[in-house]
Write a structure and sequence with these properties.
This protein is an alpha+beta fold. The protein has a domain of 187 residues: Jelly Rolls, CATH 2.60.120. The chain contains 4 helices and 18 strands. The strands form 3 sheets. Strands 1, 2, 4, 5, 7, 12, 13, 14 and 18 form a 9-stranded antiparallel sheet that branches. Helix 1 runs antiparallel to helix 2 and helix 2 packs antiparallel against helix 4. The chain is globular, with a radius of gyration of 19 Å. It starts with 29 loop residues before the first helix and ends with a helix. 49% of the residues are buried.
């Protein structure tokens, strides 16, 4: 009687070159698969299964939260094998690494503080301006995995005049934010790690989130800046207030639930940090 050969593991394109058995979970969300394929093309190799599943969970989660459609430009600045892969957008167009300021040594794909580290001069141009969206329906968020050494800086932002700005700023430990308006009320935690965000739902209804807490604000909207939002600096025609900490994620778009986004992004970055 013939002896059957044992069933061997086989390789899936999103298994990062590692074999897996049929019972092992793999990503299946179509938007996650599209993103992972683009990252693999930029990297020259797929990411590990753990990274791919974390990305899949993120896409599934933000769809379940009904926040997916609100995100118009976003990057996951960790997980990919290379800096080129990290600049592949989750949603929207790819950011510009202005003057190729960021280099491979600035990028950490996993571990305790994954992300892209600022150096005080380099920044990303998101390719999206606040004026590309609705005045009273907008958000800006960044996930910081390592805080800055400078007391005053912008994690991201665009500025025209004092009442036409969308920014995430730290000023000597105080977090200051705005969305198409003057500054929102300040809060502590400006040098914390985690999600920093601001979201505007109406002309007189906004909120900001820092250190796991969301605070409402009624600062009236004025107008939207026409400058592209930059990451690691504020854009007022030229970048200023550079951030030298580490950012693992950013998103720009319509108003959304910052607490829900925080939970999904924190889970994503944490899972990637443990996977690579």
């Amino acid at each position: 009687m013939a002896t059957l050969a044992p069933k061997l593991p086989y390789t899936h394109p999103f298994a990062g070159g590692f074999p897996y058995r049929g019972s092992q979970r793999l990503p299946s969300d179509p938007d996650a698969l599209t993103y992972l394929a683009a990252v693999a093309a930029a990297d020259g190799a797929p990411v590990e299964v753990g990274v791919a599943v974390a990305v899949d969970d993120f896409f599934r989660g933000i769809k379940a939260d009904n926040t997916f459609s609100a995100i118009k430009a976003a990057c996951l600045l960790c997980g990919a094998r290379t800096l080129a892969g990290a600049l592949v957008p989750l949603v929207g167009t790819a950011p510009t690494n202005v003057a190729d300021g960021f280099v491979a040594g600035d990028y950490t794909r996993g571990g305790a503080t994954p992300g892209l580290q600022g150096d005080g001069t380099s920044y990303l141009d998101s390719g999206r301006a606040p004026s590309d969206g609705e005045l009273n329906d907008a958000h800006l968020a960044c996930y910081v995995s390592a805080s800055a050494t400078s007391n005053t800086h912008y994690k991201a932002g665009a500025y025209s005049i004092a009442t036409q700005q969308t920014i995430l700023r730290s000023n000597f430990g105080t977090f200051i934010a705005s969305v198409n308006s003057g500054n929102f009320a300040g809060s502590g935690g400006g040098n914390a790690v985690g999600l920093f965000g601001a979201s505007r739902f109406a002309a007189d209804s906004s909120e900001f989130r820092v250190a796991g807490e969301t605070t409402p604000d009624s600062t009236a909207s004025d107008a939207s800046s026409t400058q592209n939002i930059t990451i690691f600096a504020r854009n007022d025609g030229t970048p200023d207030g550079f951030f030298d900490g580490t950012i693992a994620f950013y998103s720009i778009g319509e108003a959304l639930d910052l607490e829900a986004l925080d939970a999904r992004v924190t889970a994503l970055v944490t899972a990637i940090g443990a996977a690579v």
